[in-house]
Amino acid sequence: MKRTNNKFIITVLLIAVTLIVYSQVWNHEFILLDSDFYIYDNPRVQKGLTADGLGWAFSFNETSYLHPLT
Fold first, then answer.
1. Overall number of domains in the chain
2. Tens digits of per-residue pLDDT, 27-49?
3. Confidence of residue 70 (pLDDT cuts 50, 70, 90)
């Protein structure tokens, strides 16, 4: 029973730390590096969260991805 409590405490701590770290970006603006192609002009994204959209997102290969930070 103690092991289950430890896992729960660790899980809650990880969630709390993640929320604290990422809460700093709450008011940051959206970065517009490649948003026109991937978001604004993308009909699948404009339809919202659908099964077709999820399948496309994990098999998307129409253009190369922009990785400015890597």
1. 1
2. 887 776 666 766 778 888 889 88
3. very low
The answer as to whether 68 is a domain residue is: no
Residue 31 lies in a domain: yes
**CA of residue 38 relative to chain centroid, distance:** 14
The range of the structural domain enclosing residue 53 comes to 2-57
* Residue (of 33, 31, 29, 13) closest to 21 by Cα position: 13
DSSP of 21-66: HHGGGTTPPPP-SSHIIIIIT-HHHHT-S-HHHHHHHTT--SSPPP
Is residue 67 included in any domain, yes or no? no
